[in-house]
Amino acid sequence: MEIFHKPEELKEYSRKMKKAGKTIGLVPTMGALHEGHLTLMRAAREKCDIVIASVFVNPVQFGPNEDFDAYPRRFEEDCKKLETVPVDAVFHPEPKDMYPDGFCTYVNVDGDITKKLCGARRPGHFRGVATVVTKLMNLSRADEAFFGQKDAQQVVVVNRFVSDLNIPVHINMVPIVREPEGLARSSRNAYMSADEKQRALVLSRSLRKAKEAYDNGEHDAEKIKKITREVLDAEPKAKIDYVDLYSFPALEPVDSVDERSILAIAVYIGKTRLIDNVIFGGADK
Ligand code: PAF
To answer: 245: pLDDT confidence band, cut at 50, 70 and 90?
Structure first.
């Protein structure tokens, strides 16, 4: 597995691979890799000749009071996991090489899709994501890029700027990977104590309850949200950030839930902010 730290090295590698006629799959990550990430890597492995993973805790997508400093960094461990897939190359740059002195160009997705859910709570977050993902797509010359459904709004935003900016890449959304008891895999799960992790099961429980109600014929959006909130409210350590229902992928408000609706939640368990979602007719049931 090749390891590149400098953008120029990745650029040269992907240039050569493209010249050799290879298709390239990109899996952007911030590291602290778990089974969710490895599922993305395997999806890329199946579809593409060359798989490039990036491991970069991107400073520009974190707000001033967010967890940039605390975000887990475990590059050696990550590489061992990537070798099991295997991936062909990993890109692990320094912030100063991605954002050198004088850097002042950002990708800003300026539509309604960034003004709700996490976009409303984390100002500037999607501008940071769109900027780094655009850079990674340019450097890797990816034909295919892979993102997890857990960050469903991110997938919507990425699809939007890829389409708006005519970036020649196809976006693949891979279903949420959960721990056996239901907790969605996330690098941020590492922040929680064993007790908090147990309490965090309330997120997937609330979504399951909502889905059950839908399957039993309840399609009223307000009622589905109420059911979700009631389950979350019963856990004393859970503080709801949002419980919202939209059409997917348009992210427009819905009164009546159907199979292309998404129920998305963000909940604090202690100090850890977790997100999860269900698409009612989707792969992640
Ligand atoms: O989903 C993430 O881990 C990040 O937002 C991404 C896509 C790697 C960009 O930094």
So the answer is: very high
Answer whether residue 285 shows pLDDT above 60.
Answer: no
The mean pLDDT value for 91-105 works out to 98
| Amino acid type, 22 | K
> What's the length of the chain?
285
129 lines ligand 1 (CB under 6 A): yes
Q: Whose CA is closest to 247, among 153, 114, 119?
A: 153
Q: Which two tokens stand for residue 40?
A: 């993305």
- Distance (Å, whole) CA 87 – CA 79: 9
Instruction: Check pocket membership of 221 for ligand 1, CB cut-off 6 A.
Output: no
Q: Are 212 and 278 in contact (CB under 8 A)?
A: no
Type of residue numbered 160: R
- On whether the CB atoms of residues 114 and 140 are closer than 8 A, the answer is no
Examine the residue annotation and report whether 37 is marked as an active-site residue of this protein.
yes
- Locate 131 and state its tokens: 């900027």
Instruction: For residue 117, give both structure tokens.
Output: 């859910």
How far, in Å, is the centroid of ligand 1 from the Cα of 29? 5
DSSP state letter for 129: H
Q: Which atom of ligand 1 is found nearest the CA of 133?
A: 9
0.70 surpassed by pTM: yes
Structure letter (DSSP) for residue 256: B
Q: Determine the pLDDT at residue 282.
A: 78
Amino acid found at 208: R
Closest C-alpha residue for ligand 1 atom 7: 28
Catalytic-labelled residue, pool 5, 34, 37, 170 = 37
* CA-to-CA separations, 141 to 11, 52, 167, in angstroms, rounded: 8, 10, 10
